Amino acid sequence: MVSKPSLPGREFPINVIDMHTGGEPLRIITSGYPAIPGEDILAKRRHARDELDHLRRFLMFEPRGHYDMYGAILVEPSLPDANLAVLFIHNEGYSTMCGHAIIALGRYAVDYGLVIPVEPVTQVNIECPCGLVRAEVSVINGQSGTVRFKSVPSFMFAADIELALADGRAFKTDIGYGGAFYAVLDARQFGLEVGSSPVRDLIDLAQSACSAVNASITLYHPDHDDLAFLYGAILTDGKDTWSSDPTRNICVFADNQVDRSPTGSGVSARLAIQHAKGLVIPNTARRFESVIGSGFEGRVAGITRCGTFPAIIAEVSGKAHYSGAASFWHDADDDIGRGFIVR
User: Fold this and answer.
1) Domains, the chain
2) Exposure check for the chain: N or C terminus, fewer CB within 10 A?
3) Annotated catalytic, 98?
4) SS3 (DSSP) at 315
């Protein structure tokens, strides 16, 4: 009989602080998690995935979490400029970048002493699996507020790819990278509208589009093979040409998990695609809205390269809020309490 991995007991629980950014949750593990070895952040990510995945399920799944829960494990940084390093967790595994988490972690770092607060702006450098992300936290009268970050180089991997869903319906999609790879497509191709069509229909479309991309396209990232996977699909309202009007999208990622925020890495990928197609004005901000109407502000802040890809530096800003704190443990005879998912 194979023994099951041990979980934290009442004497030594895992402690967390919960936040949300634009409605998207972030569970920050503050203590009780085992040290994660590895010479760099990607090695730590592999170790967590291979050796500690029972703790991801324990914290993200029911009865402590839910299908769309999201989390952050703080680890020792390996980059000299980093103030902190983070592994992102969700319903399927371990992502490489998360903008809504960066915005929350920026406030958390200021409020909980991970950096020394400086008014009116405090710099917080966060090492992510995709690289170093530089955040700036507004601090006024000792209170943290809005956070803006400049992400790793974002680029358009492919444009206007013609594919078909499993049911034969043809569609076009772009593929963009903003710390993670996304298929980015106009939902109106299928008669759907982000914000008014049933979310279930949007999830089904995103899942089918990702399956079509994965069956036909081999992704590549110049920095590391660990980054070369399709994280999800971003369905948009088709408003890619720059306008003062907001544009709305929904991000469906991992195992059909729905982002309640506009998705910071997704906004970066959308901006990279728009810039590559000549549809965006550099250094001009635009509001990006989520499926629930919450918003980030995004702009092209600089031009660069990522290997052979022309790339941009995207700047995304928003605000996170605290929602609570908890200590989690496991009763030894509670097999259900190890973590389960209904949906």
Assistant:
1) 14-149+322-328 (3.10.310.10), 154-318 (3.10.310.10)
2) N
3) yes
4) strand
